[in-house]
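Example record used in the benchmark description.
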Amino acid sequence: TIVAPAEAGQVYIEGIRSDELEYGLIYNSIPANVKAVANPGYTFIGWSGALSGSEKSKAVSITENTSLTAHFRRNEISSTGIVINEINYRSADDFDPEDWVEFYNNSNQNIDMSGWYFSDSDDEHKFTFPTGTILAADSYLVLTRKDSLFRELFPDVQNKIGDMDFGLSGDGELIRLFDSNGAIVDELTYNDKAPWPVEADGMGATLALTNPGFDNSLGENWAASSSYGTPGQSNSDVSVSNEEELFDELPKNVSLSQNYPNPFNPVTTINYGLDKPGRVSIRVYDITGRLVSVLVDENSSAGNFSVSWNATGFSSGVYFYALEALGQKVSKKLTVLK
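Model output (C-alpha cells):
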C-alpha cells in the first residue's frame, strides 16, 4: 500500500498498520478490511489502484500483486484567533454535566462563527454553529453535549451553545474546529495519558490550556483545572502557576510557540525555548520573504524565553517569524490586523 503524500496518514489492514504487516498474516485472495486514517492536518479523499471511491473503510482481496494507494489532502489553515481552550471529555461520577468544549477568541476583533462547525475524528460527527453566532474579542463560548445537564450544574454560564449530537472519547481523540469554508481553524489530539493531565480522566478536573497563546496540540501546555472547570471564563485557576512551572522547567528541545495574541495590533509576544546553550535568532519576514525585523540575535543560555514584536509602522497582512538555533530552524505564521 502507498500513502500519498507519505506523511498524511496510515492504511490499516485488518487493524494492523500496513507498514508493520507481514504478508503471510493476510491469506492470499481472501477479502480483508482496509481502512485509511488521516493524520492531523490532513483529510482522506479517496483510493486508487485495487480500490476506488472515497469510503475510508473497504474490503479488498489481497494478493502479492495488489497495488493500493490512499490519497489525502492537506487541510487549509485559517488565520483567525479562535482556539480550543478547555475540554471536559470524561466527568466525575458525582458531577456530570456531560461533555463540553470551550472556545476562546484570542484576537482583538469580534468573529462571526455562523456556519462554522466542530467535529471529532469522525467526519460524520458535526455540530454547525447557527447563523448569528458571534464570538466577541477576548471572549469565550462553550459548546455542550447536553444543555439541560450542563445548565443544572453551571446555572450562571450563559455564553454557551448546544446540543452536539456526539460525545468526546474518554480515551482521547482528534477534535477540530472548521470555519464556514471548511478550513481548519484549530485542531488537536488530546489524550488521557501523560503528558496530558490525567486528572481530567473522570477525576473531576477538565483539560485547561495554561495560556491561549501556547501551542494547544502539546499536552505539556495543558493543566488540570482545580475544580470542575471554568466554562465560559478564563482558566485563571491554572494559568499563572502552570506558566511559571513551564518557564522553570528546562525544555526538552528547541521550541517556538504561536505568537499571542494573533491576529494582533500592534504588539504580540513570542515564546521560545532552548534545551542547551547556543546561538539563537528570531527574524520576521513579509509574505514575499523579505526580512522586515530581527527580534533576537545573540548567544543564549538554555531555558524558556519571551520576546515581543511591535508592528507599528507595518501594514496589515500575513508575516512569518523564524527561529534558528542549534542547527534547527522553526517558522510560524502571524497576522497583523489594523
